[in-house]
Amino acid sequence: MTTTTAVNAFRIPLDHESDTSGLAALVTEGKLDASAVIGVTGKVEGNWPGEQTRIAADTAVRRYLTGAGATAESVARIPMIFSSGGVGIMTPHIVVYARVPWNGVIDSQPRLVVGSGRTQPLDARWLGSSRMVSECANAVRSAMEDGDMTRDEARFVIAKSPSPSEEQLDEAGVSPAIRRALLPLVSGATALGIGVALGEFELPDESRIGVDQSLWTGRASCSVGRERPFSQMLALGNSTRAGGTLMVGASVMHDVIDVTALDRALADAGLEIGASGITDEILQRIVAVYLKIGEPDGTIRGRRQVQDARNSRYGSELKAAVGGAFAGRLGDTALYISSAAVHQGPPNGGTVAVVVDHS
Q1: Could you give the residue numbers annotated as active site?
Q2: pLDDT tens-digit map of 117-140
Q3: Which letter, b or e, does each residue of 248-278 get, where b requires 16 or more Cβ atoms within 10 Å of its Cβ?
Q4: Cα(65)–Cα(47) distance, rounded to whole angstroms?
């Protein structure tokens, strides 16, 4: 007999990147079993050359869960996907997902399911290639199987892919041209793998990876970092076979100031926004908000943007601006925002996902 399960999610503010006090409070209060955790996402503050805040957050959470009763083996398998660059008014935080038994009523309403998967360690020669797209697609399929969801039930996949060191690139003989385009190639190949796994398109020609922005998925947020040598996948979906009170919804941003994409994602998660906007009652039901944003091509709705090539901080400025716009729409600053969307949402736009509570 199959045991019915539910997914719980907890949003926890961080006082610093290694802060586990809020996590510990949930465990102490009996609201969270460390051994039930199946995924963690987070926004941390690092925004300077050589910063290690993502690695610090990853290490701290894994260390705490292991000390709180989870096995080292199970903790090692948990995808922990952190985005740094907590600029502007964004509040550093984590969202912890846990799978628990469900003894309540199962009705016709779809509820949140979450699954995890990962690739094998990725050879630096595969990064941004068709081989990487295929590896990521297989990892997403594993995540959907783990979460007991079909590709039609999957609504959003949050991913983290590796960025090799210069030494690894040297050893693999990676060309200077590939190195210069490494971030869009890696992020783009990951996103295309997600789209392939979700049945949105077939495996594309390698020449389109990181280049042809007419090819995109609206159900992905992919970032790059050196935390792990493999791509981590956290798939979120809705299923009528699941218990609980949560749902996930997704939408796309047609440009980076398309704040109504948040309303559409909330509606997709079963929360219709009326003339009063996002009221306090609705805000209390929102557990997590994920934004993946692209970089404008020089204009936004016909208005010229100043994108000085000498300004290396433009990406952070853009992230802060979008964070302010969406925080104003939402009425909350706890947003996960990742920039440099490649094959993720329409060109110059991006993707949005929300997790909401229907209890």
Answers
A1: 160, 223
A2: 999 999 999 999 999 999 999 999
A3: bbbbbbbbbbbbebbbbbbebbebebeeeeb
A4: 26
Q: CA-CA distance, 121 to 68, in Å (whole number)? A: 28
> How confident is the model at residue 308, as a pLDDT?
67
Question: pTM (2 decimals)?
Answer: 0.96
pLDDT over threshold 90, residue 104: no
Cα–Cα distance between 34 and 230 in angstroms, integer? 24
As a dihedral over the C-alpha atoms of residue 57, residue 26, residue 154, residue 138, rounded to 10 degrees, the angle is: 40
**From the CB of residue 108, how many other CB atoms can be counted at a distance below 10 Å?**
5
- Give the tokens for residue 96: 């912890």
Tokens of residue 11, six digits: 């949003």
Query: Looking up tokens 């159900």, which residue turns up?
Result: 219
CA gap 294, 273 in Å, rounded: 25
User: Which residue in this structure is represented by tokens 């981590």?
Assistant: 232
Average of pLDDT values for 293-302? Answer: 91
